[in-house]
Design a protein that fits this description.
The complex is a heterodimer of chains A (251) and B (359). Chain A has 251 residues and is of the alpha/beta class. Chain A has nine helices and ten strands. In chain A, helix 3 runs parallel beside helix 5, helix 4 crosses helix 5 and helix 5 runs parallel beside helix 6. The termini of chain A are far apart. In chain B, helix 12 packs antiparallel against helix 13. Classes of the chains: A alpha/beta (251), B mainly alpha (359). Chains A and B meet through helix 2, strand 6, helix 3 and helix 5 of A and helix 12 and helix 13 of B.
């Protein structure tokens, strides 16, 4: 079961190793995230950012070390995994909305069939969160009829409708046109200000500066640098981090 | 032909026709010749089918042979054999009602309002039970009629519908097993599917009808009809499984991941996310498979069943109407056409309905 003691860490990762065949994708990762903390993860392509956060809700299986999420250790116990997935929301780079359902149905389905909420309650919750991400008027449309930014906000609302205790974002803005990035980031900033525990893979350094408690830099499957944003941007110690920062900030 | 080209306004229908078919003298000539040929063929056909045709049975076969046109009186005289086969004459109303039951069941299950597990199960359960009781009798004061006497359209419809009812769920199971993560399951399923697909339907029907009873104990063998249906359902499911699998491959991996991340169980992901999208992708090929299966029901004649085509043979084969086979086949073709064409139109409707909200 999910323990709800607020003192424990939301996520605790110890000596995590992950292999794809013989490829060592994650090397000895150690990370602890407190409840209410906002973590931004960045790093070059292929450095293992997605792999790491996908291990947290077991979209990827780890090969070594321990992952504890909301007080439950992730192992082969399917009940544990389902329990954790209910409490952990995830937003993907390519939205992954269900194209055969309306926006409203996208937001209602999981609360109804996973949490067994009555339809009326699920709909009320869905409308509340659509309001919150500022697209209540799109409720009856299909995902294919929305812009990328709108779709990503629906995806956020869909995850929030499960009323998760932790949200994972995997490059939520990198498939979007520049003018749509702001509307998605705004929603994420609001969410952060309300105290949600968040782990975001993103290269939006402005966002990191505004909301992150810690910024993590990964390279070649390792956590290379971990620091509060001011320190991270002004006085990072590592050469690879500096090089990466000059690339993302300097273009 | 000379013409002045003005800035073209939206051309009217006539103008459009003229430009397409009468643009140059040669084109005009060719168009006229084709038109004449078509008119000639149409006239001949109409003349045969309508103007010089015999429609009543009053004159008997002799009146037909005297006339130049089609002999529709053979249909008037023999339609009962075509539709009901060797089913006892006084009981044929039951066969007719059974046909209606199957058609109503099919139509109902095509209506989206019935697409919930309970309703569709109710419709199918009631439909097949009604068909069975009506055809077989032995209860409610209906005289008993064994499966060997069933025939005609009633039998064709029954074989087709039950083949699909059994074959379709089986196909989905096979498709799901084939994408199992356990290699020995997916490989075995693949082997079964490919094995069945590489056999001709006729040999499968023959095996199920004739060979199987020797291999099975008496109590397991059941009536030949049900074994044949099982065989054709197996054949159907092997093809349909590959169609469904193709549809599944068209669903992006992210869909299942999103469903997982929301905490949905395996069956919820399959039922709510994967299959609805896979079936949408697979719809055109699925309708195609249904059409093929409908026409392939005629193969059951080789194991001794009088489905509609074989009943047609019997209808003209008995001496006096021997000359009127074209009319009988035309009538049967019309029946096939009505069913298959409705099926295709329904497929087109579904595609339109499902494309709502797609980019
Ligand atoms: N399913 C897989 N099979 C094999 N290798 C994989 C698989 N998924 C990821 N990898 C490899 O693992 C490494 C880390 O991938 P990951 O997707 O975590 O990188 P990332 O940091 O998220 O990169 P990006 O910024 O491009 O999204 C990459 O080298 C990638 O090639
Ligand atoms: Mg990634």
């Amino acid at each position: 079961m999910i323990s709800t003691q607020s003192s424990g860490a939301a996520v605790h990762i110890e000596n995590l190793d992950k292999y794809y065949g013989s490829f060592h994708a994650l090397r000895n990762i150690n990370l602890s995230v407190k409840r209410g903390e906002k973590i931004v993860v960045c790093g070059p392509s292929g450095s293992g950012k997605s792999t790491m956060i996908r291990c947290i809700n077991r979209l990827e299986q780890h090969n070594g070390g321990r992952i504890t999420v909301l007080g439950t250790e992730l192992n082969d116990d399917v009940g544990n995994i389902d329990g954790i997935r209910r409490e952990v929301g995830m937003v993907f780079q390519h939205f992954n909305l269900f194209p055969h359902m309306t926006v409203l149905e996208n937001c209602m389905i999981a609360p109804m069939i996973v949490r067994k909420r009555p339809r009326a309650e699920a709909e009320a919750t869905a409308r509340r969160y659509l309001e919150k991400v500022r697209i209540p008027e799109q409720a009856t449309k299909f995902p294919g009829q929305l812009s990328g930014g709108q779709q990503q906000r629906v995806a956020i609302a869909r995850a929030l409708c499960m009323q998760p205790q932790l949200m994972l974002f995997d490059e939520p803005t990198s498939a979007l046109d520049p003018e749509m990035i702001a509307e998605v980031l705004d929603v994420m900033v609001t969410l952060a200000s309300e105290g949600m525990t968040m782990i975001c893979v993103t290269h939006e350094m402005g966002f990191a500066r505004r909301v992150a408690d810690r910024v993590i830099f990964m390279d070649h499957g390792e956590i290379v640098e971990e620091a509060p944003p001011e320190q991270f941007f002004t006085s990072c110690r590592n050469e690879r981090t500096r090089q990466f920062l000059s690339q993302v900030l300097g273009h | 032909m000379e013409m002045v080209i003005v800035a073209p306004p939206a051309p009217g229908k006539l103008e459009d026709l003229r430009r397409r078919f009468f643009a140059t003298p040669l084109q005009a000539l060719l168009s006229l010749i084709s038109l004449a040929i078509m008119a000639f063929v149409l006239w001949k056909l109409l003349n045969w089918a309508v103007f010089s045709a015999v429609f009543t049975t009053s004159g008997g076969p002799e009146a037909c042979q005297a006339a130049a046109g089609a002999c529709w009186s053979v249909i008037a005289a023999r339609w009962r054999i075509i539709l009901f086969g060797l089913y006892p004459f006084e009981e044929q109303w039951r066969s007719a009602l059974a046909c209606v039951a199957v058609v109503v069941m099919t139509v109902l299950s095509c209506i989206p309002a019935f697409w919930t597990g309970r309703r569709i199960a109710l419709v199918w359960g009631a439909g097949t039970a009604l068909y069975y009781v009506l055809m077989k009798g032995g209860v409610l004061g209906l005289p008993y009629v064994g499966e060997e006497a069933w025939g005609g359209l009633a039998l064709t419809l029954f074989i087709f519908v039950t083949t699909c009812l059994i074959g379709f769920p089986l196909a989905i199971c096979l498709a799901l097993l084939r994408r199992s993560e356990l290699p020995w399951i997916s490989r075995t399923t693949g082997l079964i599917i490919d094995g069945v697909r590489s056999l001709p339907l006729i040999s499968i029907l023959f095996t199920f009808a004739v060979v199987l009873p020797f291999a099975l104990p008496q109590w397991m063998a059941g009536d030949k009809l049900y074994r044949v249906i099982l065989g054709s359902a197996l054949f159907f499911s092997a093809y349909q499984a590959e169609i469904v699998r193709g549809g599944m491959q068209g669903v992006p991996k992210g869909q299942e991941e999103a469903a997982m991340a929301l905490g949905m169980s395996y069956w919820q992901r399959i039922g709510r996310i994967l299959l609805p999208q896979a079936m949408r992708n697979a719809l055109p090929a699925t309708i195609n498979q249904f059409v093929i299966s409908f026409k392939e029901t005629s193969l059951v004649v080789i194991v001794g069943f009088f489905e509609i085509l074989a009943s047609g043979n019997a209808a003209y084969g008995t001496g006096e109407w021997r000359f009127a086979y074209v009319e009988v086949y035309a009538f049967i073709a019309l029946i096939y056409f009505v069913f298959v064409f409705s099926l295709s139109r329904y497929g087109a409707y579904l595609e339109r309905r499902m494309s709502v909200g797609e980019r």
